[in-house]
UniProtKB/TrEMBL annotation:
<dbReference type="GO" id="GO:0015689">
    <property type="term" value="P:molybdate ion transport"/>
</dbReference>
<dbReference type="Pfam" id="PF13531">
    <property type="entry name" value="SBP_bac_11"/>
</dbReference>
<comment type="similarity">
    <text>Belongs to the bacterial solute-binding protein 1 family. WtpA subfamily.</text>
</comment>
<feature type="signal peptide">
    <location>
        <begin position="1"/>
        <end position="23"/>
    </location>
</feature>
<keyword id="KW-0732">Signal</keyword>
<dbReference type="GO" id="GO:0030973">
    <property type="term" value="F:molybdate ion binding"/>
</dbReference>
<protein>
    <submittedName>
        <fullName>Molybdate/tungstate transport system substrate-binding protein</fullName>
    </submittedName>
</protein>
<dbReference type="InterPro" id="IPR050682">
    <property type="entry name" value="ModA/WtpA"/>
</dbReference>
Amino acid sequence: MRFWRRFLTILAAALLLALTAGCGGKNTGSMHQPATKPAPKETLKGKVVIFHAGSLTVPLDKMAKEFERLHPGVKIEREASGSRTAARKVTDLHRPCDIVAAADYTVIDDLLYPTYTDHNVLFARNELVIMYTPQSKYAGEINSKNWYKILLRPGVNYGRSDENADPCGYRTLMCWQLAAKYYRDPGLYEKLNRGCPPRNIRPKEVDLISLLETKTLDYVFIYRSVAEQHKLPYVTLPPELNLSDIRYASFYKEAAVRVKGKKPGEMVTYSGKPIVYGVALLKNAPNREAATAFLKFMIDRNQGLRILKECGQPVFDPPLYKGTLPPELKEAALKPAA
């Protein structure tokens, strides 16, 4: 309990600093600084394999291109999936990987630490929104107050990601549970859950975008950064429901979702908390030198963090960390989470 009190205190301070610094949205202006030139004697080479959350696809693509320009001998290979699926590629399938980046830092805590990594770097935030297209049913009518009434109208189709594969999936279920409390409608969670059949559920949240574009779905629950990156309209949710505001952390805890655990047949309970992303360098990273260099790039305020902000995603500056950082990362400007 002492750890979590200390961690939440530091997290609250970091969120407040980020908000007062104007890091809550896009930043394409004065924050941009020239990338550091590569060292005269380039030693980095080979491929770096990253398993990552689908919501990081766009910013990681931009980071990879910039890093490869600085280090021509390195190829960044990225594989997007739900964050829990990304971790299980390491734990269950034993696939070679250098870095895992998750949309929920607790995925790294629960599935990878301490066997596969000895640290967890908390680097970004997000919020839950409802994305749609101009062709969605009642697109001109839906707003932050009536969204649940619109979704429950006959003929409206909405979707989410799989809670066992993707944090956005269990966060959506948490949002619905909190909505039942917030709107004082005890049956609302069951109504929303029944209204989203298995055919409307996908392994990761970005898989839902094509269903919107083909008009298979009218609305999807997704992260705000993804909606902004794809330039699609979205409905913001009250801070009590969007899992972004540290001030409502105690209320978020009132929501809980059961998901598959580490072992076959095991189920674990995830409780609601503010959305925080985590990234870790694996102990057995095949290309440790280049992977460490990329991770440093990723969490540098003038490089990876800048790109994240330009892609509409709030960051922690400086990032926080849990566990024991490897010697190669200790020179990075990180702040302990506890």
